[in-house]
Amino acid sequence: MKKRGTVTVAGVAVAVASLMVTSVPAEAAAGANMRVGIMLPLTGDLGTYGPSLANAAQLGVKMVNDSIKKNKLKGSCTVSGTEDDQTKPSVGVEAATKLVKSNKSNAIVGSMASSITLAVANSVTIPNNVILLPPTASSPAITTLKDKDTVFRVYPSDNLQGKALALLAAKAFGKTAKINLGHRNDAFGNGLADVFTEVFKANGGTINKEVKWEPEAASYDSEAQALAGGSPDGWVIIDFDGTFAKIAPALSRTGTWKSNKSLMTEGFNSEGAIKNVGAQYMEGVRGTSGAQDGASPKEFQDMFTKAYPKAKWNGFEGSAFDSAVLACLASVNQGSVRARDLAEGLRNVSGAEGGTQYTWQQLDAAVKAAASGKKITYFGAWSAAKFDGAGDPAAGVFDVYSVASGKPVINAADRIKF
Questions:
Q1: CB neighbourhood size of 260 (10 A)
Q2: Which of 46, 177, 197, 366 is a Cys-bridge partner for 358, taking CB atoms 3.0 to 4.6 Å apart?
Q3: What is the pLDDT of residues 213-239, one digit of tens each?
Q4: What is d(CA 166, CA 418) in angstroms, rounded to the nearest whole number?
Q5: For residues 236 and 181, what is the distance between their CA atoms, to the nearest angstrom?
Q6: Low-confidence ranges of the chain (pLDDT < 70)
Protein backbone atom coordinates (compact mmCIF):
# COMPACT_ATOMS: atom_id res chain seq x y z
CA MET A 1 0.00 0.00 0.00
CA LYS A 2 1.12 3.53 -0.66
CA LYS A 3 0.58 6.33 1.74
CA ARG A 4 -1.52 9.07 0.24
CA GLY A 5 -0.20 12.58 0.26
CA THR A 6 -3.39 14.37 -0.71
CA VAL A 7 -5.10 16.91 1.52
CA THR A 8 -8.33 15.71 3.13
CA VAL A 9 -11.39 17.56 1.96
CA ALA A 10 -13.08 17.17 5.35
CA GLY A 11 -10.03 18.62 7.10
CA VAL A 12 -9.96 21.63 4.75
CA ALA A 13 -13.67 22.21 5.26
CA VAL A 14 -13.26 22.29 9.01
CA ALA A 15 -10.27 24.63 8.78
CA VAL A 16 -12.07 27.07 6.47
CA ALA A 17 -15.17 27.02 8.64
CA SER A 18 -13.15 27.84 11.72
CA LEU A 19 -11.62 30.85 9.98
CA MET A 20 -14.96 32.16 8.73
CA VAL A 21 -17.06 31.54 11.84
CA THR A 22 -14.87 31.01 14.88
CA SER A 23 -17.88 30.42 17.13
CA VAL A 24 -18.97 27.29 15.24
CA PRO A 25 -18.05 24.26 17.39
CA ALA A 26 -16.28 21.21 15.95
CA GLU A 27 -19.40 19.13 16.64
CA ALA A 28 -21.19 21.03 13.87
CA ALA A 29 -19.04 19.32 11.23
CA ALA A 30 -21.00 17.00 8.96
CA GLY A 31 -20.98 13.44 10.18
CA ALA A 32 -21.06 10.16 8.29
CA ASN A 33 -22.96 6.93 8.84
CA MET A 34 -20.20 4.34 8.99
CA ARG A 35 -21.15 0.68 8.48
CA VAL A 36 -18.70 -1.93 9.77
CA GLY A 37 -19.05 -5.56 8.72
CA ILE A 38 -17.55 -8.38 10.77
CA MET A 39 -16.22 -11.51 9.04
CA LEU A 40 -14.47 -13.97 11.32
CA PRO A 41 -14.10 -17.75 11.72
CA LEU A 42 -17.02 -18.69 13.93
CA THR A 43 -16.34 -22.31 12.90
CA GLY A 44 -13.52 -24.23 11.24
CA ASP A 45 -9.80 -24.35 12.10
CA LEU A 46 -9.91 -21.04 13.96
CA GLY A 47 -13.39 -21.51 15.39
CA THR A 48 -11.85 -21.62 18.86
CA TYR A 49 -11.03 -17.92 18.52
CA GLY A 50 -13.48 -16.30 16.10
CA PRO A 51 -16.67 -16.00 18.18
CA SER A 52 -14.93 -14.10 20.96
CA LEU A 53 -13.21 -11.76 18.50
CA ALA A 54 -16.55 -11.09 16.80
CA ASN A 55 -17.95 -10.04 20.17
CA ALA A 56 -14.96 -7.76 20.71
CA ALA A 57 -15.43 -6.07 17.32
CA GLN A 58 -19.12 -5.53 18.05
CA LEU A 59 -18.21 -4.02 21.42
CA GLY A 60 -15.72 -1.64 19.81
CA VAL A 61 -18.29 -0.35 17.33
CA LYS A 62 -20.91 0.08 20.05
CA MET A 63 -18.59 2.01 22.33
CA VAL A 64 -17.60 4.49 19.62
CA ASN A 65 -21.21 4.94 18.55
CA ASP A 66 -22.19 5.59 22.18
CA SER A 67 -19.46 8.24 22.34
CA ILE A 68 -20.71 9.85 19.13
CA LYS A 69 -24.16 10.16 20.72
CA LYS A 70 -22.75 11.38 24.03
CA ASN A 71 -20.83 14.12 22.24
CA LYS A 72 -24.01 15.03 20.29
CA LEU A 73 -22.19 14.61 17.00
CA LYS A 74 -23.76 13.98 13.65
CA GLY A 75 -23.27 10.57 12.06
CA SER A 76 -22.95 7.08 13.50
CA CYS A 77 -20.92 3.88 13.46
CA THR A 78 -22.87 0.62 13.44
CA VAL A 79 -22.38 -3.07 12.69
CA SER A 80 -23.77 -3.89 9.25
CA GLY A 81 -23.66 -7.65 9.80
CA THR A 82 -21.58 -10.55 11.13
CA GLU A 83 -20.57 -13.47 8.88
CA ASP A 84 -18.76 -16.77 9.46
CA ASP A 85 -15.86 -17.38 7.05
CA GLN A 86 -15.48 -20.95 8.39
CA THR A 87 -11.66 -20.53 8.11
CA LYS A 88 -12.01 -21.16 4.37
CA PRO A 89 -11.00 -18.66 1.63
CA SER A 90 -13.92 -19.51 -0.67
CA VAL A 91 -16.47 -19.07 2.13
CA GLY A 92 -14.73 -15.87 3.20
CA VAL A 93 -15.13 -14.41 -0.29
CA GLU A 94 -18.85 -15.24 -0.23
CA ALA A 95 -19.24 -13.74 3.25
CA ALA A 96 -17.40 -10.54 2.32
CA THR A 97 -19.40 -10.19 -0.88
CA LYS A 98 -22.61 -10.30 1.16
CA LEU A 99 -21.29 -7.72 3.62
CA VAL A 100 -20.28 -5.37 0.80
CA LYS A 101 -23.01 -5.86 -1.77
CA SER A 102 -26.05 -6.58 0.39
CA ASN A 103 -25.16 -5.00 3.72
CA LYS A 104 -23.36 -1.96 2.22
CA SER A 105 -20.37 -2.20 4.56
CA ASN A 106 -17.76 0.57 4.33
CA ALA A 107 -15.17 -1.47 6.23
CA ILE A 108 -14.81 -5.10 7.29
CA VAL A 109 -13.08 -6.40 10.42
CA GLY A 110 -11.67 -9.76 9.28
CA SER A 111 -10.35 -12.26 8.77
CA MET A 112 -8.06 -13.93 11.28
CA ALA A 113 -6.39 -16.11 8.64
CA SER A 114 -4.00 -14.66 6.07
CA SER A 115 -5.22 -16.93 3.27
CA ILE A 116 -8.77 -15.66 3.71
CA THR A 117 -7.65 -12.05 4.10
CA LEU A 118 -5.73 -12.16 0.81
CA ALA A 119 -8.58 -13.87 -1.03
CA VAL A 120 -11.15 -11.39 0.26
CA ALA A 121 -8.93 -8.40 -0.45
CA ASN A 122 -8.22 -9.41 -4.04
CA SER A 123 -11.74 -10.55 -4.89
CA VAL A 124 -13.98 -8.22 -2.89
CA THR A 125 -12.66 -5.29 -0.89
CA ILE A 126 -10.01 -3.87 -3.24
CA PRO A 127 -12.28 -3.90 -6.34
CA ASN A 128 -15.11 -2.34 -4.32
CA ASN A 129 -12.97 0.24 -2.47
CA VAL A 130 -13.80 -1.10 0.99
CA ILE A 131 -11.41 -0.93 3.95
CA LEU A 132 -10.29 -4.31 5.32
CA LEU A 133 -8.93 -4.66 8.87
CA PRO A 134 -7.76 -8.23 9.61
CA PRO A 135 -7.24 -8.49 13.38
CA THR A 136 -4.65 -11.29 13.40
CA ALA A 137 -3.71 -12.08 9.77
CA SER A 138 0.08 -11.90 9.73
CA SER A 139 1.42 -13.01 6.32
CA PRO A 140 4.18 -10.80 4.85
CA ALA A 141 2.25 -10.98 1.56
CA ILE A 142 -0.31 -8.58 3.04
CA THR A 143 2.38 -5.91 3.40
CA THR A 144 3.24 -5.96 -0.31
CA LEU A 145 -0.33 -6.42 -1.55
CA LYS A 146 -1.34 -3.87 -4.20
CA ASP A 147 -4.44 -2.87 -2.32
CA LYS A 148 -4.94 0.80 -3.19
CA ASP A 149 -4.33 1.68 0.49
CA THR A 150 -7.33 -0.28 1.79
CA VAL A 151 -5.84 -2.97 4.09
CA PHE A 152 -4.77 -2.08 7.63
CA ARG A 153 -3.81 -4.41 10.45
CA VAL A 154 -2.95 -3.93 14.12
CA TYR A 155 -1.29 -7.36 14.38
CA PRO A 156 2.45 -7.56 13.55
CA SER A 157 3.61 -9.16 10.32
CA ASP A 158 5.30 -12.54 10.27
CA ASN A 159 8.37 -10.67 9.05
CA LEU A 160 8.70 -9.99 12.78
CA GLN A 161 7.25 -13.23 14.15
CA GLY A 162 9.63 -15.25 11.96
CA LYS A 163 12.50 -13.43 13.62
CA ALA A 164 11.02 -14.00 17.08
CA LEU A 165 10.55 -17.72 16.37
CA ALA A 166 14.13 -18.00 15.08
CA LEU A 167 15.45 -16.31 18.23
CA LEU A 168 13.46 -18.73 20.38
CA ALA A 169 14.70 -21.74 18.37
CA ALA A 170 18.32 -20.67 18.78
CA LYS A 171 17.79 -20.21 22.53
CA ALA A 172 15.96 -23.52 22.91
CA PHE A 173 18.10 -25.77 20.70
CA GLY A 174 21.32 -23.82 20.00
CA LYS A 175 22.32 -21.49 17.19
CA THR A 176 23.69 -24.34 15.06
CA ALA A 177 20.78 -26.69 15.75
CA LYS A 178 19.27 -29.00 13.13
CA ILE A 179 15.52 -28.37 12.90
CA ASN A 180 12.64 -30.19 11.22
CA LEU A 181 10.14 -27.60 9.98
CA GLY A 182 6.51 -28.52 9.40
CA HIS A 183 3.76 -26.16 8.27
CA ARG A 184 0.39 -25.81 6.59
CA ASN A 185 0.52 -25.07 2.87
CA ASP A 186 -1.19 -21.68 2.77
CA ALA A 187 -0.33 -17.98 2.98
CA PHE A 188 0.22 -18.05 6.74
CA GLY A 189 2.24 -21.27 6.86
CA ASN A 190 4.39 -20.61 3.81
CA GLY A 191 5.05 -16.95 4.63
CA LEU A 192 6.09 -17.56 8.23
CA ALA A 193 8.14 -20.63 7.30
CA ASP A 194 10.07 -18.63 4.71
CA VAL A 195 10.96 -15.87 7.16
CA PHE A 196 11.88 -18.32 9.92
CA THR A 197 14.09 -20.33 7.56
CA GLU A 198 15.92 -17.27 6.27
CA VAL A 199 16.66 -15.88 9.74
CA PHE A 200 17.45 -19.22 11.39
CA LYS A 201 19.88 -20.24 8.66
CA ALA A 202 21.52 -16.81 8.62
CA ASN A 203 22.19 -17.21 12.35
CA GLY A 204 23.92 -20.57 11.83
CA GLY A 205 21.05 -23.06 12.07
CA THR A 206 20.10 -25.85 9.64
CA ILE A 207 16.71 -26.91 8.29
CA ASN A 208 17.01 -30.69 8.31
CA LYS A 209 13.59 -31.30 6.73
CA GLU A 210 10.70 -29.14 5.57
CA VAL A 211 7.30 -30.84 5.39
CA LYS A 212 4.11 -29.15 4.14
CA TRP A 213 0.52 -30.34 4.48
CA GLU A 214 -2.79 -29.35 2.96
CA PRO A 215 -5.24 -27.97 5.54
CA GLU A 216 -8.15 -29.93 4.06
CA ALA A 217 -6.41 -33.33 3.80
CA ALA A 218 -8.26 -36.40 5.05
CA SER A 219 -5.27 -37.86 6.91
CA TYR A 220 -1.69 -36.90 7.75
CA ASP A 221 0.14 -40.16 8.46
CA SER A 222 2.73 -39.75 5.68
CA GLU A 223 3.42 -36.12 6.59
CA ALA A 224 3.80 -37.09 10.25
CA GLN A 225 6.27 -39.86 9.42
CA ALA A 226 8.34 -37.48 7.33
CA LEU A 227 8.29 -34.72 9.94
CA ALA A 228 9.20 -37.00 12.84
CA GLY A 229 12.20 -38.61 11.11
CA GLY A 230 15.82 -37.57 10.72
CA SER A 231 16.76 -37.20 14.40
CA PRO A 232 16.52 -33.38 14.58
CA ASP A 233 17.48 -31.31 17.60
CA GLY A 234 13.94 -29.94 17.64
CA TRP A 235 10.83 -29.16 15.64
CA VAL A 236 9.12 -25.96 14.52
CA ILE A 237 5.46 -26.46 13.62
CA ILE A 238 3.26 -23.77 12.05
CA ASP A 239 -0.43 -24.63 12.04
CA PHE A 240 -3.90 -24.01 13.49
CA ASP A 241 -5.46 -26.18 16.17
CA GLY A 242 -8.20 -27.53 13.89
CA THR A 243 -5.67 -29.15 11.56
CA PHE A 244 -3.09 -30.03 14.18
CA ALA A 245 -5.76 -31.96 16.10
CA LYS A 246 -5.50 -34.49 13.24
CA ILE A 247 -1.71 -34.30 12.86
CA ALA A 248 -0.73 -34.58 16.54
CA PRO A 249 -2.02 -38.15 17.04
CA ALA A 250 -0.20 -39.22 13.87
CA LEU A 251 3.02 -37.62 15.14
CA SER A 252 2.62 -39.33 18.51
CA ARG A 253 2.22 -42.72 16.82
CA THR A 254 5.67 -42.37 15.21
CA GLY A 255 7.29 -42.74 18.61
CA THR A 256 10.06 -40.30 17.69
CA TRP A 257 8.37 -36.90 17.80
CA LYS A 258 8.67 -35.08 21.12
CA SER A 259 6.25 -32.33 22.07
CA ASN A 260 8.70 -30.87 24.61
CA LYS A 261 11.17 -30.27 21.77
CA SER A 262 8.61 -28.52 19.57
CA LEU A 263 8.05 -24.82 19.00
CA MET A 264 4.73 -23.50 17.68
CA THR A 265 2.98 -20.21 17.04
CA GLU A 266 0.13 -18.07 18.37
CA GLY A 267 -2.60 -20.48 17.35
CA PHE A 268 -1.80 -22.62 20.38
CA ASN A 269 -1.52 -19.87 22.99
CA SER A 270 -5.00 -20.72 24.21
CA GLU A 271 -6.43 -23.26 26.63
CA GLY A 272 -9.27 -23.90 24.17
CA ALA A 273 -6.88 -24.66 21.30
CA ILE A 274 -4.78 -26.97 23.49
CA LYS A 275 -7.92 -28.82 24.57
CA ASN A 276 -9.05 -29.13 20.96
CA VAL A 277 -5.74 -30.77 19.97
CA GLY A 278 -5.51 -32.86 23.13
CA ALA A 279 -3.48 -31.77 26.16
CA GLN A 280 -1.54 -35.04 26.10
CA TYR A 281 -0.06 -34.09 22.73
CA MET A 282 0.80 -30.51 23.72
CA GLU A 283 2.62 -30.96 27.04
CA GLY A 284 5.92 -29.08 27.02
CA VAL A 285 5.31 -27.30 23.70
CA ARG A 286 6.70 -23.78 23.58
CA GLY A 287 5.99 -21.01 21.12
CA THR A 288 5.75 -17.36 20.17
CA SER A 289 2.58 -15.33 20.04
CA GLY A 290 1.80 -11.76 19.08
CA ALA A 291 1.22 -10.02 22.40
CA GLN A 292 -1.29 -7.57 23.74
CA ASP A 293 0.68 -4.42 24.52
CA GLY A 294 -2.12 -1.97 25.04
CA ALA A 295 -3.57 0.12 27.82
CA SER A 296 -4.92 -1.50 30.99
CA PRO A 297 -5.14 -5.12 29.75
CA LYS A 298 -6.73 -6.50 32.92
CA GLU A 299 -9.40 -3.81 32.91
CA PHE A 300 -10.14 -4.56 29.25
CA GLN A 301 -10.55 -8.26 29.94
CA ASP A 302 -12.82 -7.48 32.90
CA MET A 303 -14.96 -5.17 30.78
CA PHE A 304 -15.19 -7.70 27.97
CA THR A 305 -16.06 -10.56 30.30
CA LYS A 306 -18.78 -8.47 31.92
CA ALA A 307 -20.24 -7.62 28.52
CA TYR A 308 -20.00 -11.20 27.22
CA PRO A 309 -20.00 -13.55 30.24
CA LYS A 310 -20.45 -16.66 28.09
CA ALA A 311 -17.58 -15.84 25.71
CA LYS A 312 -14.35 -17.86 25.97
CA TRP A 313 -11.53 -15.36 26.47
CA ASN A 314 -8.47 -16.19 24.35
CA GLY A 315 -6.28 -13.09 24.58
CA PHE A 316 -6.66 -11.82 21.00
CA GLU A 317 -9.91 -9.93 21.57
CA GLY A 318 -8.08 -6.60 21.80
CA SER A 319 -6.94 -6.86 18.18
CA ALA A 320 -10.53 -7.10 16.91
CA PHE A 321 -11.75 -4.44 19.33
CA ASP A 322 -9.06 -1.98 18.22
CA SER A 323 -9.64 -2.71 14.53
CA ALA A 324 -13.31 -1.81 14.91
CA VAL A 325 -12.63 1.26 17.03
CA LEU A 326 -10.03 2.58 14.58
CA ALA A 327 -12.43 2.13 11.64
CA CYS A 328 -15.09 4.13 13.46
CA LEU A 329 -12.67 6.84 14.62
CA ALA A 330 -11.36 7.22 11.07
CA SER A 331 -14.86 7.92 9.80
CA VAL A 332 -15.48 10.38 12.63
CA ASN A 333 -12.20 12.12 11.85
CA GLN A 334 -12.96 12.49 8.17
CA GLY A 335 -16.74 12.89 8.24
CA SER A 336 -16.73 10.39 5.39
CA VAL A 337 -17.05 6.71 4.51
CA ARG A 338 -15.03 6.84 1.27
CA ALA A 339 -12.08 4.46 1.31
CA ARG A 340 -9.44 7.05 0.49
CA ASP A 341 -10.71 9.31 3.29
CA LEU A 342 -10.88 6.43 5.74
CA ALA A 343 -7.27 5.51 4.91
CA GLU A 344 -6.24 9.06 5.74
CA GLY A 345 -8.35 8.95 8.87
CA LEU A 346 -6.84 5.66 10.03
CA ARG A 347 -3.38 7.20 10.03
CA ASN A 348 -4.69 10.37 11.64
CA VAL A 349 -6.19 8.51 14.61
CA SER A 350 -3.65 5.69 15.00
CA GLY A 351 -0.78 7.90 16.02
CA ALA A 352 1.09 7.64 12.72
CA GLU A 353 1.11 11.43 12.53
CA GLY A 354 1.44 12.03 16.27
CA GLY A 355 -1.18 13.81 18.36
CA THR A 356 -2.61 13.62 21.86
CA GLN A 357 -2.87 10.07 23.20
CA TYR A 358 -6.24 8.65 24.23
CA THR A 359 -6.71 5.13 25.59
CA TRP A 360 -9.65 2.85 24.90
CA GLN A 361 -11.00 4.03 28.27
CA GLN A 362 -11.11 7.63 26.98
CA LEU A 363 -13.23 7.14 23.87
CA ASP A 364 -15.54 10.05 24.63
CA ALA A 365 -12.58 12.44 24.50
CA ALA A 366 -10.99 10.60 21.56
CA VAL A 367 -14.17 10.85 19.50
CA LYS A 368 -14.53 14.55 20.28
CA ALA A 369 -10.93 15.27 19.26
CA ALA A 370 -11.19 13.12 16.12
CA ALA A 371 -14.39 14.89 15.08
CA SER A 372 -12.62 18.23 15.24
CA GLY A 373 -10.21 16.98 12.57
CA LYS A 374 -7.29 16.63 14.96
CA LYS A 375 -4.61 13.97 14.65
CA ILE A 376 -4.63 11.74 17.70
CA THR A 377 -2.92 8.61 19.00
CA TYR A 378 -5.45 5.95 19.93
CA PHE A 379 -3.76 3.69 22.49
CA GLY A 380 -5.97 0.67 22.30
CA ALA A 381 -6.57 -2.54 24.16
CA TRP A 382 -4.13 -4.34 21.84
CA SER A 383 -1.59 -1.60 21.08
CA ALA A 384 -0.99 1.80 19.54
CA ALA A 385 -0.99 0.83 15.86
CA LYS A 386 0.69 3.91 14.33
CA PHE A 387 0.06 2.58 10.81
CA ASP A 388 2.98 2.86 8.41
CA GLY A 389 2.78 3.44 4.67
CA ALA A 390 1.83 -0.21 4.08
CA GLY A 391 -0.94 -0.19 6.68
CA ASP A 392 1.12 -2.28 9.10
CA PRO A 393 1.72 -1.45 12.77
CA ALA A 394 4.96 0.34 13.50
CA ALA A 395 6.15 -2.23 16.05
CA GLY A 396 5.61 -5.79 17.21
CA VAL A 397 5.65 -7.51 20.59
CA PHE A 398 5.70 -11.29 21.13
CA ASP A 399 5.15 -13.41 24.18
CA VAL A 400 6.86 -16.75 24.69
CA TYR A 401 4.55 -19.40 26.10
CA SER A 402 4.95 -22.99 27.27
CA VAL A 403 2.21 -25.58 27.73
CA ALA A 404 1.84 -27.19 31.14
CA SER A 405 -1.11 -29.34 32.27
CA GLY A 406 -3.26 -28.21 29.36
CA LYS A 407 -2.70 -24.48 29.79
CA PRO A 408 -0.35 -21.94 28.16
CA VAL A 409 1.97 -20.27 30.65
CA ILE A 410 3.64 -16.97 29.76
CA ASN A 411 6.86 -15.73 31.31
CA ALA A 412 6.93 -11.94 31.03
CA ALA A 413 10.74 -11.94 31.21
CA ASP A 414 10.94 -13.77 27.87
CA ARG A 415 8.89 -11.17 25.96
CA ILE A 416 10.43 -10.20 22.59
CA LYS A 417 10.04 -6.64 21.30
CA PHE A 418 10.85 -5.14 17.91
A1: 12
A2: 366
A3: 999 999 999 999 999 999 999 999 999
A4: 14
A5: 5
A6: 1-30
